[in-house]
Specification:
Layout (H helix, E strand, L loop, with lengths): L6 H9 L4 E5 L3 H9 L4 E4 L3 H4 L11 H14 L4 E5 L9 H13 L5 E5 L5 H12 L4 E6 L5 H4 L13 H16 L3 E5 L3 H10 L4 E4 L7 E4 L1 H5 L15 H17 L15 H4 L1
Helix pairs in contact: 2-4, 5-6, 6-8, 8-9
The structure holds 3-methyl-2-oxobutanoic acid (KIV).
């Protein structure tokens, strides 16, 4: 049994006033570094679709792809909690299928928890989350901008802008409260004004994890490729901590030059025939 960060560890850190950290990862080498870097949670996001598999948005990610990514991260993560992000329509069509798919993240891919996006007043999702938590599947909510509903919302718009006391913001707060009642252990709050982030955080007694939700939330999450400068985009809500695109491009160019100029392989990269007397 792995001794990774548990729901109760997350709660203890939250109650001690620690700000929680989460990053996405989609494969073992990156997850190894993210884990060693000390995050509390690794989200195997459905953002793998656009940040890892070359799609335009998160919708095409399949259950099999999500499970394969999660299993790779599970093999790499020693300390951080691994959260499997349930793909578009892998939940919601029926209770039975939703529970089975959530269970596959735990049983087949080694996830410690799952995450589901919830629309304002998303009754269906809230019912599913209620069932999952009753069955012992730690579940993270996700409200605000929910990319799986992008075609319905019309784009990655900032939720709650200019309408802090409006019905839309009240709906967000109520949805967060309903998620808390359904038993989520954390709530991701994506792309909302800082004031809305604060209102939701004050309204619930579960940690809120913000991405583009300002400073007054209980934790932060970023998409790994954006923060590493690895084919990601420079979004206002993100911060780039490295420029891996340049590093990788430079390394590839150096390799191509070395091979073309006969610098690689060098003598130290070559094998001699076995000398039976000395090598055996
Ligand atoms: O899939 C993802 O990367 C996410 C984060 C943006 C929270 O859901």
């Amino acid at each position: 049994m792995q001794d990774r960060t548990s729901v109760s560890d997350i709660w203890t850190r939250y109650e001690n006033g620690e700000t929680l950290t989460m990053l996405t990862a989609y494969d073992a080498p990156i997850a190894t570094q993210v884990d060693a870097g000390g995050v509390d949670m690794i989200l195997v996001g459905d953002s793998a679709a656009d940040n890892h598999l070359g799609h335009d948005d998160t919708l095409p990610l399949t259950m099999e792809e999500a499970l394969s990514n999660t299993a790779a991260v599970d093999r790499a993560a020693e300390d951080a909690m691994v959260v499997g992000d349930m793909p578009f329509l892998s939940y919601g069509a029926s209770m039975e299928e939703s529970v089975e798919n959530a269970g596959r993240f735990m049983k087949e891919a080694g996830a410690d928890a799952v995450k589901l996006e919830t629309a304002p007043h998303g009754e269906t999702t809230i019912e599913i989350i209620d069932r999952l938590t009753e069955l012992g599947i730690p579940t993270m909510g996700h409200i605000g901008f929910t990319p799986q509903r992008m075609h319905q919302i019309g784009g990655p718009y900032i939720q709650g802008r200019g309408q802090t006391s409006s019905a839309a913001v009240d709906e967000l707060v109520e949805t967060a409260e309903r998620l808390e009642e359904a038993g989520v252990f954390t709530i991701v709050l994506e792309t909302v004004t800082e004031e809305v982030g604060k209102r939701v955080t004050e309204a619930v007694d579960v940690p809120t994890i913000g991405i583009g939700a300002g400073r007054y939330v209980d934790g932060q999450v970023l998409v790994i490729t954006d923060m590493l400068g690895l084919g990601g985009e420079a979004f206002k809500l993100s911060k780039q901590y490295a420029d891996l695109d340049s590093e990788i491009r430079g390394a590839v160019e150096d390799y191509v030059d070395d091979v073309k100029e006969g610098e690689f392989p060098a003598e130290e990269n070559t094998y001699e025939p076995l000398d039976e007397e000395t090598d055996n």
